[in-house]
Specification:
Layout lengths: L3 E3 L16 E3 L6 E6 L12 H15 L5 H16 L4 E7 L4 E8 L3 H7 L3 E3 L6 H8 L3 E4 L6 H10 L3 E9 L2 E10 L7 H48 L4 H16 L3 E7 L5 E10 L4 E10 L4 H4 L5 E3 L5 H6 L5 E8 L5 E8 L6 H24 L4 H19 L10 E8 L7 E7 L5 E9 L3 H18 L6 H16 L8 E9 L4 E7 L3 E6 L4 E6 L18 E4 L5 E5 L1 H4 L10 H11 L5 H16 L8 E8 L1
Antiparallel strand pairs: 1-3, 2-3, 4-5, 4-9, 5-6, 7-8, 8-9, 10-11, 10-15, 11-12, 13-14, 14-15, 16-25, 17-18, 18-19, 19-20, 20-23, 21-22, 21-24, 24-25
Helix pairs in contact: 1-2, 1-6, 2-6, 6-7, 6-10, 6-11, 7-10, 7-12, 11-12, 12-13
Amino acid sequence: MEDRICLLCAEPQLPNGITKKGRFFCQTCNREWILEKRKIPRIGKNILSSEEKTEFLLDNLSLFNSAIGLEDLMQRFTELISVRLKRDKIAVFITNLELGEIKLAYYSTKQKNLQRAIKRITLDYDLSYGILIESLAKGEPCFYKFSEQTHPFYEFYSKLTGTKSQLVIPILYAGTAVGLVTIDYDEEDDSYFLEDQEILQIVVGQLAVSLRNSLLFSKSENQSKNFQSLHTAALTLSQLYLNNHDEMVRMILLTLSGIVESSLTCLVENQTGSSKAKIFKLYRDLENHQIQTNTESIDIEKIHSLLQTKETITIDPITNNDFETMGIEGKESMVFPLTLENGTRCVFILTKQNSRFPHDEIEALNAFVSLARITMENSNLYQNLSNKERLEKEIEIAKEIQSTLLPRKAPEAEGFSFGGFMVPARGIGGDYYDFILSPNRNELFICIGDVSGKGVAAGLVMATVRTILHSLVRVKDSPWEILNDINNYLYSSYKEAITPRFMSMILLRWNLITGEVQYSGAGHGNFYHYHANSQSLSVIETEGVILGIQSDISRFRNESKLRFDSGDTILLYTDGVTEARNSEGTEFSEPKLKSSFLSWIRLEPKNILERIYSELKEFVKEQEQHDDITMVAVRKI
């Protein structure tokens, strides 16, 4: 007898309830499908046998049980599905009903330019989008053709990706849609989508649980980062910026924009009896990681209703006349009003261009605005101190805060040993060094820099650059691109200052797996590389230009690499080391530094730095220290 083949599970079975149209319920997979009579089974493109389904399920279970972040989960899941289904374009969307939006979490395709172009798609949870929202609301899979959809989004998506039809599988957790899995097809043929649907539905339930857990973990991690930001900001704002009002405001706005990634953050400030309000604005380009600041004045009559705000509110900028007057545009703005003890009225405004503010971000913002109020009150009180008291307090608190901003301990990177320290010349210095380990512990950024000038003014710049650097290394790989962004901030913030601020820097990006070191320089000079195999020392000359001098430094672009082998050691330093002078005016110099470095090379990096510093102190004896002394040493064990 001819075999009857179920095209879904490819198992020969007797039909159960054949209809007039030749449909039946397969006794193996228990789904209605087309029954075909043929001697040679025709297996569909993606049909899985029972054994393959079990193997596929185990592969996914292994993935979902792994402790990985959201992006890694999305990448591995879509790659696994892509290999199994032999499909190139697979996407995962995540819903946020609190914000009423659906955001693309990951788009898997071999076309990398398309992957970059599509990564920021966000949809409103709006019925006008049609079939996508309908599938999400009903919690049911669907297959549809783009040519049959009327919303402009589908035409845009089709032109961008080349998609003609799409399979949508809702991701349901406890009956609630937390996202969507979609497969894009370059044709309208519906021959195989049921096979793809069957395979996806094997694992979409497991994905829902894993996705939910990952989102909860991500939310918890963000809250933890917010609390850390608040703690750091509390130290920085309450201690370092009390004597410089405008710098204090810039730091407040910078920290606020970092907590929620707002495109525009501003403070409206109206002092008692003044007919003018001062508006401090900080613009943040979230795509290109550029930061710009602007300060202007405005008649209070033009923003009267805004200054009368008494409580935290959410505003649609398009519908608010005061916002139009101030040139504020976007999708949603948060307004945080406060009045200081001296009667000054202040309004913090944060704006997002393409999204809304979730509840947990609003909580963090409220906490930070309360902190900012205390800082501003302290600043007003601080202005009333006598000059002598203020100077002594300035040095004391600045020194304390700087000690908290520098690394307290070496990073925990297996196979490496670290050392680093700074001795400021005037209580607080403008030198800076840092170790920034990536979350996956595969990469380490090492930097050393020197701000022009000394004392609190230089310390302010150092603290701000540290904040920007820690933000940039999470989103940019190239040391030169990071240096370029820091230059943009320094130039735009201090170009009109009475005393401009400049900074030299060396930034290294260290791949801890391959041992490759990529580095760029910004007018800082040299560093040393000791090769254990040949027992030789290389002087690595960095190039570039000092940051903050000019707006465009692209012609000074420099990027180089070096190989770091087992036993190798590098030494970075500032000119406070080589230019330290004794009573006769003789400098410690680079030759003495190299000689000292080589003589103690067999010690641990931190001990090497201690011995070098001891020799330097012996050289200068009781001579006054005129510049900050900073050194960093790293060895591959």
